[in-house]
Amino acid sequence: MAKKPAAPAISIGISDKDRAAIVAGLSKLLAETYTLYLTTHNFHWNVTGPMFNSLHAMFMAQYTELWTAVDPIAERIRSLGHPAPGSYAQFAKLSGLPDAPATPPKALEMVRILKEGHEAVARTARAIFPAVEKASDEPSADLLTQRITVHEQTAWMLRSLLEE
């Protein structure tokens, strides 16, 4: 049986070790983004109460943005030469976010849970920067900056709903 040729070596100016460190962080970011996507979509389906219309629409905009975000994160992982995680089991292992509650909470509790989720994902993205800066990985830095901006802005909007 003929031996399969090895994949060409990756020579993009980032060492194997640095790429692996960045990918570890991006894999956690991907898992948390997907977990937050699922929770947000769940809340979109299950929100009730006097704020239904506004929260239903807001949650849809948020889960759509999160859904769109997972692909660039996964593709950056692939660009760095590693497989992207993509199963519920992998995401559960990698993510620091809790799963959506089995019983849908009240509307403002949904808002609080999502606020905490966006803040946590922003912290995860920010924590990857030392590895990215060490490797001069500008594409990953750009991706992280975009993700932090979205998560911090979304957390601010959700916090605003919780003010009395």
TrEMBL record:
Top-rank taxon, per record: Bacteria
Database matches in Pfam families: Ferritin (PF00210)
Domain Ferritin/DPS: 24-163
Classification via Gene3D superfamilies: 1.20.1260.10
Family: Belongs to the Dps family.
Protein name, as recorded: Dps family protein
Organism: Pelomonas parva
